[in-house]
Amino acid sequence: MCGIIGYVGKKNATPILINGLLNLEYRGYDSAGISTLESTCISNIKTKGRVKNLYDKDIDSLEGTIGIAHTRWATHGKPSDENSHPHLDNSKTFSVVHNGIIENYKELKSFLEQNNYYFLSQTDTEVIPNLIHYYYTKNNNFLKSVNEACKCLKGSYAIEVLCKNDKDNIIVVRHDSPLVIGVNEDDKYVSSDIPAILSYSNNFYLLDNDEFAMISNSEINFYDINLNKIEKKLKHFDYDITSSQKNGYEDFMLKEIFEQPNSVRETIGSHLSPDSLISFNDFDFKLEDLKNINQIYIVACGTAMHAGLSCKNTFEKLLHIPVTVEIASEFRYRNPIIDNKTLAIYVSQSGETADTIAALKLAKTNGAKTIAITNVIGSSITREADFSLYTHAGPEIAVASTKAYTSQIVLLNILAIYFAETLDFADKNFLNSLKNEILLLPNKIEYVLKNPDNIKNIAKTVASKKDIFFLGRGIDYTVALEASLKLKEISYIHSEAYASGELKHGPIALIENGVTVVSILTDLELLEKSISNIEEVIARGASTFVITNQELVNSNYNYVINIPKTNKFLSPILSIIPLQLFAYYIAKEKNLDVDKPRNLAKSVTVE
Ligand code: M6R
């Protein structure tokens, strides 16, 4: 995790660096810091806590036009001033910001200690500036020293380095952590992602693994790991910058929840025409390859994994191929069976999740065909996968994922239909009706979002609870998992999601007077059984909140929210929305920071 920013230009670097850091705070907000090259030294200002805390420091004293900056998600060493980046070497010749983890830092630290270096922080990062200095004492060359130091590092890193003795350049390099360089005629910007510097440039160099860039005001030179000069292509990206602003909403999460009619409309519009034709750009998945596939993995983390779970049944019904949905961090270490008859689909909003990317590389190495489904154009995952499909949901800033999830489900369903049509063996009527239902989704989402106050009132009554349970059967269980994750990550209320039928195998022991149980009931075939499960918790004193698209007769539930009917495979797109609002309003009731919940970051770029 962590976000890094760099600037080389003619303007005062500090406001630009702070602005970039604010855009990157979604990657971590445990501490922040800035280094600038001043006339006689490197100035270094850093602080525990949010980026805005930098305004309480003496940042007006910084005049340099070249600088680097960092916002931290703590891995090694608690959030504190001394563990904040940038880190300087002992002689204060080099300053470094780093995103990633140096796995062999203990070994490097003891090597440096034997060479009389000392350490001020508990971080893995502090070895980097000192190691660069160690080589600098031998070769007196900035670039060579950074290169030699990087050859010693194991793990993942995107780093930016300033050198007191080089008043013109910063050097950047990446290995398994993202880094992009934005360029204008007069200024160069470095960032962990494109949106953070979009207000400055639309033209970017995307650094690949083990590539170095030496960036000055007038030019950028690129090098490979052996310091051979290489050429890089400048890429142009158009993003709508206004969609990363709050537009009058109190929080990004609320804005993103209410954007769902449009984000889903965009996902559909990009891949499925109003006359039901599916098209994917640059997606040359051959019929022979598809015929050869005998198993599908959908691999992801967190909410993206829940989107995968919701779509398992669509793929199995339409393609008659077994589908396994896996958590990326488990998949990559369990020696899964993968061969050239395997299709592996990786879902990631950010396209930067370390475990998901590693799991993709594993499948690719073993001969599988790989598809990345992501929201971020040019993200790391798209550079690894055989094929990439974009959700086009627009920037998702809040840590809690909402609109990305609904768009992922839409896109996965469209992909399943596309494959079924290519193979030509699924029931055409069924496919057509599914496509028609997909086209109706934006209006149905609008309907669900019409009365948020109903949910707000329910949320108020449960905000003080210690535990909340979510139940569902079949596809509703996958929504229960996602609703439970949403609630715990932003409201800090303990919650569990269970398949309703599993309740009496243990967890029902936890149901007592006053416990809140939220049930999702959208599957007509499983309705009666699910209703019986709700009765079982009512009999034990639970208060019940039901989300349903069915007509419930004589129900004795405390709260019911009705949502429109749709095809069973698409129901999570509608049933999750009241539950996203439920989590949101509970967190607001508790006065919590909804967009930046504690201990979390938007992009999980470390294992
Ligand atoms: O960017 P990704 O979709 O790969 O991120 C995966 C998870 O980290 C993410 O969905 C996480 O669980 C969200 N905070 C959930 O709201």
What does this structure look like?
An eight-stranded antiparallel beta sheet has the order 3-2-4-1-10-9-11-15, with helices on one face. The chain is built from 17 helices and 25 strands. The protein has three domains: 3-239, 4-Layer Sandwich (Glutamine Phosphoribosylpyrophosphate, subunit 1, domain 1), CATH 3.60.20.10; 244-448, 3-Layer(aba) Sandwich (Rossmann fold); 453-589, 3-Layer(aba) Sandwich (Rossmann fold), CATH 3.40.50. The mean pLDDT is 93. Strand 7 (155-163) and strand 8 (170-175) form a beta hairpin. The protein is globular and about 80 Å long. The chain is 35% helix and 22% strand. The protein is an alpha/beta fold and 607 residues long. The relative contact order is 0.09. 5-amino-5-deoxy-1-O-phosphono-D-mannitol is lined by residues 301-304, 348-350, 353, 356, 399-401, 485, 489, 603-604.
